[in-house]
Predict the 3D structure of the following.
Amino acid sequence: MGDAITGRIKGIHHITMMAGDASDNNGFYTRTLGLRRIKKTVNFDAPEVYHLYFGDGTGTPGSVMTSFPFGGMPRGRRGTGEVTITEFAVPPGALDYWSERFAARGVAGLTEGMAFGAARLDFEGPDGEGLALVEADARGRVPWTGGDVPADKGILGFNGARMRLRDGAGAADLLGFMGYELAGQDGALTRYRVPGGNAADVIDIEVRPQDAPARQGAGSIHHIAFAVEDAEAHVAVRTALVDAGYEVTPVIDRDYFRAIYFRAPGGVLFEVATHDPGFARDEDPAELGTALKLPARYEPHRDRIEAGLDPIAD
């Protein structure tokens, strides 16, 4: 493990998916899952597309699911080289509540099970994205309670994520370099956990060499982002990755965090993102996610951009 990276990666920062209809995506993550929409902005590279952020009350790193709703985009095809399941944590004993809630709302793909000794409920989002609720200790986390989900049942943030790969050796080496440690085996799943991180500290690798590569589309995970605390740690991690031979982008200012990107062995797009400056940099904490926020370079074009975006049914 590179000394420059030791202890700097704190777990998952956010996970970003591609989606279809913006209102369907927004409604599912806010009204069905009970998350707070903490930011409504646009894709930095495609301002005609929303970028929506959902999480706990403040957008704590390790709680934030984001989406690029591309309208009529065809659904993706599950396969190797992608994050196949995003796992959210819920309090112990909460799954009966969620099973009944999902059944009443017609949520697809409901499957109860166990993995690594924890009860879980797998299901699908509106674009077929693979999701799961996993019973886990709160570890200091507090769910958003602005909706109709009781506080003792609410989503606490991420538990982790599952990657499906044709060969897991390269990704395992990378996770080790990033500070993750082997934490166990459960059937075809190998678990890695980063010590001393946030509560979204788990990555599972599922090796399926017989599967075809994934095809990205609505419901696909675009990238998974790992958290570092500040700009100094960010630069140190980037330097270590470059020195280790990974092709890493320059640091990019994403308004709410600084980001670097690189492709992990096996095909998954990794990001490393800073905790700061956070989602309250341009909105009062009480008003997060209510107004359309634009990157500075797009502000002169606000009227045209707003006219091209379909209204979101809140």
